[in-house]
Amino acid sequence: MAGWLRTMCAPVRTSGAERRAQKSRVIQTDQQAKLISTLIHLILLENFCKGGLVDNFTFKDTPIGWFAYSDEVCPTGTSGAGKPKASTRCSNKTGSLGLDRPLQLLQCDQTLSNIQLNLTNVADLETLASSTQILTSRPGELTADNITTAAHIVNTLLLSPNATESVRVAAVATVSQLLNASTPDTEENNATLGLTRTLDQLSVNLSTNLNNSQSQVVQPNLVVQSAQVPASDNQGVQFTSLTGQWSGPSRP
């Protein structure tokens, strides 16, 4: 038995050539891992706008298609105290990835109630849409009344025949933010009951009015996509709901 144990526990001897081969394989594996890490990093870089100072406002790195809000906020004593002063969107409209200009600015004395009263002013729809979006950019601070008012504003904006693409995108971004608001179920249901029908109608309008066969608006909690289908196919609307927590895209 003792001899068997000594045999089983004896160290495995390898030749110099085998040791060099093992070391070479380790180096190759390490190099491959570094290459993969570099490629992933480059892929992520291509899908993010680099943050920094834009027109005297500071923004963080932002995924393409998403909105960024300034670190600078409205001062204490204003209606929008603590809300970002500016917003922009990461896009490749100019052919290269970057934060959109001009920035959308919030008047710090603006309120959701004031916006709701001015929705008949067609010339200001874009400003009203972006202001609503900024005012709801911190969902955890929204009251039930804020959510109700914002939902009514979004419904009006999305159904407006004068809504431009930027107005629709800002409105969809607002809906995405409202989905993060914490309110009792009854209040939330009452405030957002019409939004499902409105988004349904929006997708129909997009597929009918746009020349493209497919249109898509993507935001963190919500995607609105429309597509034209042959008349011979069955017509209908499909909704997909995903539940659970997601930390969002991250950078290496």
Question: How would you state the average pLDDT, rounded?
Answer: 75
Portion of residues within helices: 40-55%
Order of helices and strands: HHEEEEEEEEHHHHHEE
**Overall strand count:** 10
Instruction: Label the overall shape.
Output: globular
DSSP helix count? 7
Distance between the termini: 54 Å
Low-confidence stretches: 2-10, 245-252
Q: What is the structural class?
A: alpha+beta
- Name the beta content range: 5-15%
What can be said about the biggest beta sheet? 4 strands, antiparallel
Which radius of gyration do the C-alpha atoms yield?
26 Å
Give me the secondary-structure topology:
Blueprint: H1 2-9, H2 16-45, E1 48-49, E2 52-54, E3 57-59, E4 62-63, E5 67-69, E6 86-91, E7 98-99, E8 104-105, H3 112-117, H4 125-135, H5 144-159, H6 165-178, H7 185-209, E9 214-219, E10 222-227
Antiparallel strand pairs: 1-4, 2-3, 5-6, 6-7, 6-8, 9-10
Textual characterization of the structure:
- By secondary structure, the protein is of the alpha+beta class.
- The protein has 7 helices and 10 strands.
- The protein has helices at residues 2-9, 16-45, 112-117, 125-135, 144-159, 165-178, 185-209; strands at residues 48-49, 52-54, 57-59, 62-63, 67-69, 86-91, 98-99, 104-105, 214-219, 222-227.
- Strands 5, 6, 7 and 8 form a 4-stranded antiparallel sheet that branches. Strands 1-4 form a two-stranded antiparallel sheet.
- The protein is globular.
- The N and C termini lie far apart (54 Å).
- Mean pLDDT is 75; it is low at 2-10 and 245-252.
